[in-house]
Amino acid sequence: MEENRENREQEHHNGDGHCGCKHPMMRHIFIALLTFLGAFMAFYVVADWHYKQMFDPIAQMNRMDRMIRSDFDSMSKIAEKQIMKGARFAEKNESYIRLERADKSYKVIVDLRPFDNDEKNIEVSADGNVLTITAAGSSNKHGHERILKISQNYMFDEDVNLENMTKIRQGDDLVIYIPTEK
Question: CA 74, CA 68: separation in Å to the nearest integer?
């Protein structure tokens, strides 16, 4: 009988005999609430880190420095490509028309192959002590027409006589001999 009485007293202290945390619905609500609070705290911490970094002047200066360095590197690469393109064009230009000095004359050699292998496409003119060579030609490669026009000027000393120059075709080259007075 005493046992019954102790059981009843215990039930009286617990209300109807059921603990609130052992109820299945309350357990799910409690777990959901803790999960929500944990996720909210994690989001808050990450957002706080990002906002602190976003408004930190040192971090902003480092970011701007990286962006400027990246832009400078990109511009340097573009400029280097353009310089190399110009150097390749100058090399090609030198291979089309080149000047050589002999003992008593200068020799200008024009490669006729890029200019339709026709010496009529080469125009040579002299103005004072400046020799101007203009060459033009076209070619079809891979279905695209390529037009090439080169103009090269050479300035000589007073000892050169441009009026006595001679043009001779030698194979695929047009050779212009310019005598000197020495």
Answer: 10
Distance CA 85, CA 50 (A): 45
Q: Residue 178 pLDDT more than 80?
A: yes
- Phi, psi angle pair for 97, to nearest 5°: -130, 120
User: What single letter denotes the amino acid at residue 12?
Assistant: H
- DSSP per residue, the chain: -HHHHHHHHHHHHTSSS--GGGSHHHHHHHHHHHHHHHHHHHHHHHHHHHHHHHT-HHHHHHHHHHHHHHHHHHHHHHHHHHHHHHHHHHHHHHHHEEEEE-SSEEEEEEE-GGGTT-GGGEEEEEETTEEEEEEEEEEEETTEEEEEEEEEEEE--TTB-GGG-EEEEETTEEEEEEEB--
How many CA atoms lie within 13 Å of 133's alpha carbon, on the beta-carbon side? 25
Segment 56-68 shows an average pLDDT of 90
Separation of alpha carbons 96 and 79, rounded Å: 26
Confidence of residue 87 (pLDDT cuts 50, 70, 90): confident
User: Which residues sit opposite 151 in a β-bridge?
Assistant: 134
0.70 exceeded by pTM? no
- Paired sense of beta strands 144-155 and 173-179, if any: unpaired
27 pLDDT more than 60: yes
